[in-house]
Design brief:
The chain is mainly alpha-helical. The protein is 76% helix and 0% strand. The termini are close together.
Length: 66
């Protein structure tokens, strides 16, 4: 699924994001609001991983929604 579609359907997809990254709070999910770069930063911060690893995980998540 393209990120534009994810952003447009953020309210419906938010639950799946929470399943994938359970350490993200509801407030953080609201702050992300479907913006990929913000999600990337939050994942890096919460999980202490490099940008490349966070990007890889987001790409895997995108593919899982297809």
């Amino acid at each position: 699924m393209s990120w534009n579609r994810i952003e447009g359907n953020w309210k419906q997809i938010k639950g799946k994001v929470k399943e994938a990254w359970g350490e993200l709070t509801d407030d953080e999910l609201d702050q992300i609001a479907g913006k990929r770069d913000v999600l990337l930063g939050k994942i890096q911060e919460k999980y202490g991983i490099a940008q490349e690893e966070a990007d890889k995980r987001i790409k895997e998540f995108e593919k899982s929604l297809d």
